TrEMBL record:
Residues 119-244 form the Poly A polymerase head domain. Residues 21-30, 46-62 have a biased composition (Low complexity). Keywords: Nucleotide-binding, RNA-binding, Transferase. The lineage of its organism: Eukaryota, Viridiplantae, Streptophyta, Embryophyta, Tracheophyta. It comes from Eleusine coracana subsp. coracana. This is Uncharacterized protein. Belongs to the tRNA nucleotidyltransferase/poly(A) polymerase family. The gene is ga20502. Transmembrane segments: none annotated. Residues 245-283 form the tRNA nucleotidyltransferase/poly(A) polymerase RNA and SrmB- binding domain. Residues 21-69 are annotated as: Disordered. GO terms for molecular function: nucleotide binding; nucleotidyltransferase activity; RNA binding. InterPro entries: NT_sf, PolA_pol_head_dom, PolyA_RNA-bd, tRNA_ntf/polyA_polymerase_I.
């Protein structure tokens, strides 16, 4: 009877390279996407001065000139998502209060009796608050122009940036970024004029909506007024937060499961996106000094190149397979192994955990390994492996790979991986991607992969 290792039993139900199971996302290979109007016309929405009596109020969706519907405009109570004043740090509150009350030391400002400026938290911090996460920083947008912001904080504010200028306000060893509704990108033709064509919405709504049109992601268009406790969503950002996991998983699956994984990894690394999406793999590229435009190869790229040979747009693999390959390589990158151990592990993987047969076949391999891969140790001359020791080594590697799979979704270990990358980014995508990988690991667990 064949010996089947409990430590490798979780590998058994992964499909063999020649018999890849169709992906559950295969039907999404050619999605029929509903066209979204690029700039829907303003539609009615309650202004700031109108109190909200319901937890959420949705206005009619915008309609563009070609008749296509845009996203619903929404004014949502922050209480719906459990957002409290205590979740906003003192430094951000200080800037908000000063701008709103226009507490400037300027004599001209004090004589103008101006009630102050409108202020909102904007972008990633609003998303994090909605998702019940602690924002790493708080960005503010205001109706004051940047010069007025600087005058409000004499000696502690500086305007930075050329194409998209913002104001850095220094407070208690922290920096709060403040942008202005009145600032347009240089060379931009976008107008902030409240024209007669937008009479069916409030001026405040129109100004907020126009600003959202310039933002890169719908989530970054979310604005939160902490005084009225309202969240303004003009681009469907809240809905996209709900869909973020599935959308990122879908895009990652397109890149790695349909036969173009090697090329996708190269492009992600070249353009600085791999750090945001797969920080462990980016840290590996950085550790081996793999250049952004490097035409050479390495073990990670070779593994996915081999996988690509078995895949095609109409013959994808399941996402659990490419996640497992990422963990397999990361385990080798952490601790190099003898080629025989790696070969026996791979054979046990292919044979569904049949360790006895994997050991017999592994020992019969006479082909030399690729000595250029630092993940593989040079075999010791005249070294003889007995079955018991080889099985123990393979089981130890399987245990390490399982631990790596868990750490790939852990915020602490992800942060450590990013710290190894020079000028590592502070990614807003990581929380969602960690959840995506976690979903993939849950799938593995539910299908008895370990």
């Amino acid at each position: 009877m064949a010996l089947r290792s409990p430590e490798l039993r979780w590998l058994g139900t992964l499909t063999r390279p020649g018999r890849l199971a169709p992906s559950s996302l295969a039907a999404l290979a050619s999605p029929r996407r509903r066209r979204r109007a690029s700039s829907p016309s303003p539609s009615p929405s309650p202004s700031d001065s109108t109190p909200s009596t319901a937890p959420a109020t949705a206005s009619a969706g915008g309609v563009a000139a070609d008749g296509l519907e845009g996203p619903q405009w929404k004014t949502v109570s922050a209480k719906r998502y459990g957002i409290k004043e205590s979740m906003i740090p003192d430094e951000a509150w200080n800037v908000l209060h000063r701008l709103r009350s226009r507490a400037s030391t300027s004599l001209l400002d004090l004589m103008s009796f101006d009630p102050g400026y409108d202020v909102y938290l904007v972008g990633g911090c609003v998303r994090d608050l909605i998702m019940k996460k602690t924002p790493k920083d708080f960005d503010i947008i205001t109706t004051a122009d940047l010069r007025q912001v600087k005058d409000t904080f004499p000696g502690s504010a500086v305007i930075v940036g050329r194409r998209f200028p913002i104001c850095h306000v220094h407070d208690n060893n922290s920096i709060v970024e403040v942008s202005s509704f009145n600032t347009s990108a240089r060379g931009s033709s976008v107008s902030q004029i409240y024209s007669a064509k937008s009479q069916n919405c409030s001026k405040n709504d129109y100004i907020r909506w126009k600003n959202c049109q310039r933002r890169d992601f719908t989530i970054n268009g979310l604005m939160f007024n902490p005084y009225s406790e309202k969240i303004y969503d003009y681009l469907g950002g809240i809905e996209d937060i709900k869909k973020a996991k599935g959308r990122i998983l879908m895009e990652m699956n397109y890149m790695l499961a349909y036969g173009s994984a090697e090329a996708s990894l190269r492009l992600l690394w070249r353009f600085g996106l791999l750090e945001h999406l797969l920080p462990f793999q980016a840290a590996y590229f950085s550790s081996i000094r793999f250049k952004r435009k490097d035409k050479g190869s390495n073990m990670l790229l070779v593994l996915f190149s081999k996988l690509d040979n078995f895949l095609a747009p109409n013959r994808p693999c399941h996402n659990s397979l490419w996640i497992s390959i990422l963990a397999f390589h990361e385990a080798l990158a952490r601790q190099s192994r003898d080629p025989l151990i790696v070969a026996t592990f791979a054979l046990a993987f292919y044979l569904g955990g049949d360790m006895s047969l994997a050991v017999d076949i592994g020992k019969s391999i006479t082909r030399e390994h690729d000595a250029s891969f630092q993940e593989l140790l040079e075999p010791q001359p005249h070294q003889v492996w007995n079955d018991k020791r080889l099985i123990a080594e393979v089981q130890g590697f399987a245990a390490l790979m399982k631990r790596v799979l868990t750490e790939m979704t852990d915020e602490y270990h992800v942060s450590n991986a990013m710290a190894k990358i020079p000028q590592a980014p502070s990614s807003d995508v990581l929380p969602e991607l960690n959840s995506v990988l976690d979903d993939g690991l849950c799938f593995c667990s539910n299908h008895c992969l370990w």
